[in-house]
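Re: beginner question about structure tokens

> Can someone show what the tokenized structure looks like for a real chain? I only ever see the sequence side.

Sure, here's an example I had lying around. Input first:
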Amino acid sequence: MDKMNRRTFLKVGAAAGAAVLTSGCFGWFGDNIPAAVRNGTALYDVLIIGSGGAGMRAALEAAKQKGLKVAVMTKMVPTRSATCMAQGGINGAARHTDEKDSPASHAFDTIKGGDYLCDQDAVDFYTERAPEVLWELDYSGIAFNRKDDGRFDQRKMGGSTYSRTAFSADITGHAVLHTMFEQCLKHEIDFISECQLLEIVTAKGKFSGVVAMDMRSGNIMPIPAKSVIVATGGYGRAYWVRTSNPFSSTGDGIAACFNVGIPVKDPEMVQFHPTGLAVNGVLLSEASRGEGAYLLNKDGERFMARYAPKAMELGPRDLVAQAIEKEINEGRGIGEGLSSAVYMDFRHLGRAKIMERLPQVYQLALEFEGVDIAEQPVPIRTSCHYSMGGIDVIDYKTCATKMPGVFAAGECSCISVHGANRLGGNSLVEILVFGKSAGAGAVEYAKSNNYEENKEALQSAVEGWNKKFSEATGRSTGPSIASIRDKMALTMWNNAGVFRTEPGLTQAFADISALQEEYKQCAVGDSSKTFNISFMNYVELGNLLVLAKVIISGAMARKESRGSHSRVDFPKRDDKNFLQHTLITKDGDKLKTEYRPVVVTKYKPEERKY
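And the corresponding structure tokens:
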């Protein structure tokens, strides 16, 4: 084990211990909803939906402007967002470990990793600001692992040329989230917690407010605001049982934006992480391969030599995930059906290094698979992990959407910096770079625009949701939420998963359409007001069904293979016809597909080789 100095008590187990202690001792004791929101007198200049890294960073930026009212609304308590599940690290060319690194190298790795679907001007903006994000976190006191000279350490992740991923053991997202929350408390930012977003309301073509449900009381209420930043995370739970995402990743903000006419961009670009536990899809961090773990098939062969002979296990996620599924499909995996898997082998790393660098990975494998990874390899399989697509952001410098007053940041947004495949370590830095941009953009909008008051529209939306609550919770018969959800997950995994075909996607579209009809008669089974989790699950399922159909529509339209989108019937990348972004919008009861060219500056598309 490396020496521990005074500044680096956070190294190794200390990093994990600090975060665990923070989690256990730092309770949320405040009233979940400010009095002004409860009594209907609140008017926020900037309302942020989502308490992950993007939402809290946006709040911190907005709060710099004195005199503006800023609030963060979350359907959970703060610090329980998906950001806390990010494990491997956060990228930035800070050059603490590899002096040859640079923002330009980071940009090229990102664009190549995204199979050239990235908007290159946005990527340059993002990678140039990434080192600053790491230094800001360092200054804020995050528990980064350290080098002997006191600077934070950086590891190498898949698809990266250099070691540029700063980390806190394998709980980096947890450390980032708690650091952001501490800063929000310091700046006395309002939190509206345990409050479910139901609808975004517009007036005269501008944002006017949201309708939300207070989970503690069951009250459905309007929250007027000048601007909103949607930072609600991804939609991985469309695949339900084969995802590394938390149960909260149901695409609520994306669906709400979609319903007011904002396009979903590149929804077909769903990332499948190579190394989810075989038993349940729970993620074993990419830090595992970053620290040197091997991937083995049933014959003990390091099969990545066939697919990425130079990068091996550190190829980009899409390539490694597809390689794993090919090994299984060609009979070189273990198990059958959804239980099929390959192995990840840590034994050569030694117990000391595993416990220093990968303590959470060790714990997850032991708890869920019963495997001590220091003694034997653990079964793993691909798992739905990340949505590169999302709310169409039309200005990466402000994170504005086409709807005035509506901004988006984080995984729910599509700023086109990940393209067709996100590199490990790029998500945490993205949420902070663009969370800051969104906060500044929303402030400028709020300062230069009057509030478009529309009490009638807000009240009408509240009445509509009260009626929906009564109808849904009053049905005593009908399909259950769980039955519809399970059917959705099965058709999405089998027909719109790692490998896709026209017949499979057509079947998935028909299946989801039928499930949407079933959903109309769904029995919630609980009519109580207080903490009606069943109704919350009902709302979330409705959002997932909408987005599942959008994913399928994008996948059907994109007749090529690019990054995470692998069409067996169109195995080649087609830059002539599809070097462009997919845009899906509502057209009455149907979906409309349009395209926008990818922004190419200095990196001309070429074949990816690793």
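Each token stands for a local structural state, so reading them left to right follows the chain. The chain has 17 helices and 21 strands.
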